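Record type: ASSEMBLY
Status: queued
Input:
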Amino acid sequence: MSTITQNDVARKSSMQRLWTGTSRRPGLLRRAITWIVLCAGAVLMTLPFVWMVSTSFKVESQVWVFPPEWIPNPFRWQNYTEALTLLPFGLYAWNTFIITVLTTMGVVFTSSLCAYGFARIQFPGRDLVFMIVLSSIMIPYAVLMIPQYIMFRYLGWIDTFLPLWFPVWFGGGAFNVFLLRQFFRTIPAELSDAARIDGSSEFGIYWRVILPLAGPALATVAIFTVLNTWNDFLAPLIYISSQDKFTLALGLAQFRGLFSTQWQYLMAASTVVVIPTMLVFLFAQRFFIEGVVLTGMKG
Amino acid sequence: MIAQRQRAAHSSRLSMRTRSTITGYLFIMPIVLGFLIWVAGPMLIAIGLSFTSWDMLRKPEFVGFQNYAQMFKDELFWKSLQATFYFTLVSVPLSLIISFAVAMLMNVQVRGIAFFRMLYYIPSIVPSVANAVLWVWVFNSEFGLLNAGLSWLGLPKVLWLQDPRWAMPALILMSLWAVGGSMVIYLAGLQGIPQHLYEAAEIDGAGYWSRFFNVTIPMMSPVIFFNLVMGLIGALQTFTQGYLMTKGGPQNSTLFYGLHIYQSAFRDFKMGYAAALSWVLFTIVLLLSLFVFRSLGSKVYYEEPR
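Status: finished
Output:
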């Protein structure tokens, strides 16, 4: 096999080799062009961020300059303190934090329980029920939104945090159950059997054998839940009307409504809202990429 | 020892099968309840609601199919369908092609690939509200980043979000910023394709494009298919951009269907009508999914289990 490849290579012109190279390493020209294209794209990807941060440090008069200046002069740190006190962003952050924690706890705990049931216990009707539950992924939120609102109104839970975190304690979303079920299925049955022989209850196996092994998968579910809750806009928009209960998303939207032309403050507030997600990503990068892959590859 | 055996004998009054059935259902109880309470129940309520007229103050009033009839005469209904389909049918394929292409670029052994991957991925995790606020500023016709770039290239400025012809293209462009999300998935898929397939093809004399269409695409088809379907369903439900950036304007050119539902329910207080709208959306999603499954599903190549 290697003989054929080497002959092939020998027959190609040097120009061709510059492009295609060998089967081991793509040609220099191709790598260079790839690198240039990737860099150009990377610039496009980061430019809006740079724009946002640059604007956030500008004096108001500097914002209305065309063509725009990239490095603010003077450099105004106070934009941040002023923007964050124009509206009680500290309170909004705290509200968002509480909702996120309650939601994530509910998702991780209940979805792992349900995934365990679907993955590690045999019972009649199991796979059919799983299919039915799974189908709920494809149902648009718009269909559920209005009846759920009416249900919560009947319960008197409008304008509280309850509609935002309570529903996820019921299984944490079919998608998470699906993800964890796939993961649990890969754990060798021998481990469960050994525990069963030792007299452990099913819940004991779940708690002491499966859960500790599921660290990465649980972390992935947790991280994505944190991210989705942090970013959620529509649900808080519908359910929360008192300003003191606003989440960061609502706060930023309100900020936009009130200070729509003061871009330096808007950009400062936006930067602050974006930073936590960035931090989560930077610290949990490994889980992110693996988790995204896990969710997108399970076609 | 004997006591244990006695206990075991007692507990086997219930057979292993019955025990595991009960345990199994106990474990999955949360999501079964969740499905019934938060999904199945609301869907049934929505159907019933769609046959009423209700403004949340007075009692709901049964009106039969009036909501549906009204829908077909409603200009905003058709406008919102048009806008949503325009957005979906352009942004989803475009996003797919671009993220796939970028993934293929990244699959080449270039230095610093992890850094690039991170850079491309980060825009996809920006909170939608911050995204909306930022891009309104980017699209600003006088001082925005995009028009700054255009005039630097010597091109005229565009009234992005004020022009009915350009508002939707602007939103589509904005959605392409987040291609990093799917790119990461495709990249992982690409890296999972066994190298020996390419080598075998090369030996058989297959050129670059032939290798692409006969090895890469088939091996990636499950991933592409899954992301295509989920992408379509997601795009049809677009809301935040429309609500925060344009409020459906200018001239309803960006009136997303999800926004129309929201406005009917929470601004105009026509709950029954909104429920009917949402059921039409559900039907569309169902039909579209079936269509995609029928037409492309058979072309998806699944590995035989070893």
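Annotation: Residues 73 and 223 of chain A are 38 Å apart (CA to CA).
Annotation: The mean pLDDT of chain A is 84.
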